[in-house]
């Protein structure tokens, strides 16, 4: 089993080297914007090969890019257009279904690139040398730079047989350039018989994550501090937007980066706690969750509802899932996606499923059939854990595991939901909490 990780290396550049890297990043950014304009003018093309034929010669002559960089630019632009076209398609479908009235405007004009990043190919645009140095190709010639980083990453670079592409990234606040290197490491395959722990993770806003295993040991990760920080960022953003000055714009950019790093840090902390050895961790398949959940918006929504919508959209649960996934792999565990349908409405004790089990969509779950009462987020986590146990049983019997099962067909979805409805938690439904390590309440 292979796992891709990213090593972050700090480049110790001299004044001349820093000028060369700066010129390269700016030229690459200008080349991206040029290729983006050409693609937009040619029917918003997302075909990398076609775009490369249109821009390659100009990228080499006008922007002084190397051969590989001139190939990477159209690929990156084509991928951007393909992603935006997918969003347009999803937006049109959501409008037809009545989920939204807003039209996605990402392709109304050519996408603009502003970050100073350069994609480098290993053994062509960059290569590692002795004495912890790296050779990097620039528009002003090749330079050899000393780098530093985390000792584990430095050791992996010396021994890893599969080193992939890298990116030069500029950190505006510290004015430092970093080299982000992709490393593909080999990990031993996991035998289902070695899995000793099954757990489920339910995500939300009041509690960013609730984790429980089949032994009823549960952990609540509070979102109180995170929501408070998010509201502070929102207030600061509104104040700066009203000023509408160049200084305010610079502060907005800095604020955006600070908020993004804060979210990533909290997600890293939670994922490190959730990813435990010898575990099969069940995660909700949140694909299309915004289309399946309706919430009030616009003038019909109260101030409290608008704040809840803002917090729900801002927090990156997909990022949390990705962190859990790769950290689990590194310690001999696996994460798998299970269907999120009805996890908050199904009673884990008797299997009864109804919207009425969640009175007023509150925090308490009260089963209309058996009277079982439990915290609603814990109910969701238990349902996910039981579905993960079912995945483990299938894995043991068939010898294969799908980390993200395809449930697109209606018949398949109906069969899976029927199997889920037959699952039951143990008779003892009293939760055992192990505390709230990230904030309180």
Summarize the structure.
This protein has 441 residues and is an alpha+beta fold. It is built from 11 helices and 15 strands.
Order of helices and strands: EHHHEEEEHEEEEEHHEHHHEEEHHE
Rg result? 25 Å
Number of strands: 15
Principal-axes geometry comes out as globular
Low-confidence stretches: 427-441
- Judged by helices, strands and strand pairing, the structural class is alpha+beta
* Continuous helix count: 11
Assess the beta-strand content as a share of residues: 15-25%
* Main sheet characteristics: 7 strands, antiparallel
Q: Overall mean pLDDT score? A: 84
**Terminal-residue CA separation:** 39 Å
Give the strand order, joined by hyphens, for the main sheet: 2-6-7-1-5-4-3
Fraction of residues in helix: 40-55%
Written account of the structure:
With 441 residues, the chain is of the alpha+beta class. 44% of the residues lie in helices and 22% in strands. A seven-stranded antiparallel beta sheet has the order 2-6-7-1-5-4-3. Strands 12-11-8-9-10-15 form a six-stranded mixed beta sheet. A two-stranded antiparallel sheet has the order 13-14. The chain is globular. The model is unreliable at 427-441 (pLDDT under 50).
């Amino acid at each position: 089993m292979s796992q891709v990780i990213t090593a972050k290396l700090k480049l110790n550049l001299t004044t001349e080297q820093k000028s060369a890297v700066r010129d390269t990043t700016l030229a690459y950014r200008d080349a991206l914007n040029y290729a983006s304009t050409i693609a937009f003018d040619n029917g918003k093309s997302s075909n990398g090969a076609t775009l490369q034929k249109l821009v390659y010669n100009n990228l080499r002559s006008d922007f002084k890019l190397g051969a590989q960089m001139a190939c990477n630019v159209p690929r990156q632009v084509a991928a951007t257009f393909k992603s935006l076209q997918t969003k347009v398609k999803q937006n049109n479908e959501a409008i037809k279904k009545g989920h939204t009235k807003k039209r996605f405007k990402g392709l109304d004009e050519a996408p603009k690139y502003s970050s100073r990043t350069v994609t480098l190919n290993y053994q062509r645009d960059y290569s590692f040398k002795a004495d912890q140095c790296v050779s990097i190709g620039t528009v002003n010639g090749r330079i050899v730079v000393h780098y530093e980083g985390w000792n584990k990453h430095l050791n992996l670079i010396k021994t890893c047989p599969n080193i992939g592409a890298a990116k030069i990234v500029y950190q505006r606040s510290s004015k430092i350039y970093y080299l982000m290197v992709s490393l593909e490491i080999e990990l031993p395959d996991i035998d289902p018989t070695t899995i000793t722990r099954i757990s489920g993770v339910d995500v939300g806003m009041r509690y960013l994550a609730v984790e429980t295993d089949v032994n009823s040991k549960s952990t609540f990760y509070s979102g109180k501090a995170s929501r408070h920080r998010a509201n502070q960022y929102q207030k600061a953003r509104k104040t700066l937007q009203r000023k509408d000055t160049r200084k305010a714009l610079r502060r907005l950019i800095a604020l955006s980066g600070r908020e993004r790093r804060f979210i990533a840090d909290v997600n890293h902390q939670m994922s490190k706690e959730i990813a435990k050895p010898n575990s099969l961790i069940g995660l909700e398949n949140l694909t299309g969750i915004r289309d399946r959940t309706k919430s009030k918006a616009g003038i019909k929504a109260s101030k409290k509802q608008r704040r809840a919508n803002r917090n729900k959209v801002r927090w990156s649960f997909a990022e949390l899932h990705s962190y859990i996934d790769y950290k689990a792999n590194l310690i001999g565990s696996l994460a798998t996606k299970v269907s999120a349908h009805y996890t908050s409405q199904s009673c884990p004790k008797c299997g009864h499923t109804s919207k009425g089990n969640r009175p007023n969509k509150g925090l308490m779950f009260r089963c209309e059939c058996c009277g079982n009462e439990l915290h609603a987020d814990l109910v969701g986590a238990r349902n996910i854990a039981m579905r993960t146990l079912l995945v483990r049983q299938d894995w043991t019997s068939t010898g294969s595991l799908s980390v993200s099962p395809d449930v697109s067909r209606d018949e398949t979805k109906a069969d899976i939901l029927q199997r889920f409805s037959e699952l039951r938690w143990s008779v003892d439904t009293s939760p055992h909490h192990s505390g709230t390590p990230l904030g309180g309440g």
